[in-house]
Fold this sequence. Notes:
The structure holds two protein chains of two kinds. By secondary structure, chain A is mainly alpha-helical. Chain A is about 65% helix and about 0% strand. Chain A has helices spanning about 1-5, 10-25, 35-45, 60-80, 90-100, 110-115, 120-140, 145-155, 155-180. In chain A, helix 3 (about 35-45) crosses helix 4 and helix 8 (about 145-155) packs antiparallel against helix 9 (about 155-180). The longest helix of chain B is centred in the middle third of the chain and has 22 residues, at about 40-60. The termini of chain B are far apart.
Amino acid sequence: MEAIYGTWPWYVGGPLVALIMLALIKLGKTFGFSSNFRTLCSALGAGKSCDFFDFDWKAQRWNLLFLLGTVFGGALAAYGLSDHQVPPIAENTIGILKSYGFDSVGKAYLPTELFFEMDLKNVLLLLIGGIFVGFGTRYAGGCTSGHAITGLSELQWPSLVAVIGFFIGGLLMVHVFFPLIF
Amino acid sequence: MRKLVFILLGILFGVVMYKAEAASWFRIFEMFNFQSFHMYGFIGSALVVGLLGVQYMQRNKSKDVDGKEIVFHPKVKSIPRYLIGGIFFGLGWALVGACPGPIFALLGAGVYAMLIVIVGALLGTYLYGVLRKYLPH
């Protein structure tokens, strides 16, 4: 049971995600999660004020169902298939995070200091992070699923450029901005 | 029936992202510090299986479940939009510790603060739609 309730190894997780992508292709669709943000904007009426959202969003309902499934899947994993799962993070990483004041590292799935203490700073950080995710994925035309998994599997070099961008941004945030923020 | 398949695939996706910890902020931080192979193995093994599957489908001119030939649309070739857009996404990915799929998996897992991230992502997407014609692509 530990095999299910504990951390799933990368060689189980990675191939399963690839199989989900292949199944979607076989169903005549493409694996791209961040398109849902555009679809949701359109469904919320953004097409009236901006032509980028003026499209037949109902053709993307299949992806919203996939999104709904993802929410259910997260619930199933956390409440049904886990017994307080704590990622076994590298010792060095734990040291760095403790120096930033993240004492929940090694005790929780994610930093409770950021996600469960809703002060103004945290709300702003999460809101700004979300804006970057939404703006960046649409600007780049995809996220990890559309570029890092699908695009690279199709050997499309624009996706490689996007993935290099993901890493430049991530490294900047963690090594340049985190010491200023935390 | 087809609708149920999409929901089931989504459920599997949410379970996998949570259980293999691609949805853990700590794992993303660890990845950007190059201190564990976990996330690289995750993305790398997904790529190997994905690459084999896609190449197989392309070579055999595979058809989808409705009998239509599967077409792979080449992405528009350019550098600025992928690089600049990618950097913005990377900044957000590292800050919230989750890419779009895991954001929703975590919402299901009871991390309700992800609602703030989702509102932000919708605002960011809208912002892109409005500014699109002024941005280099």
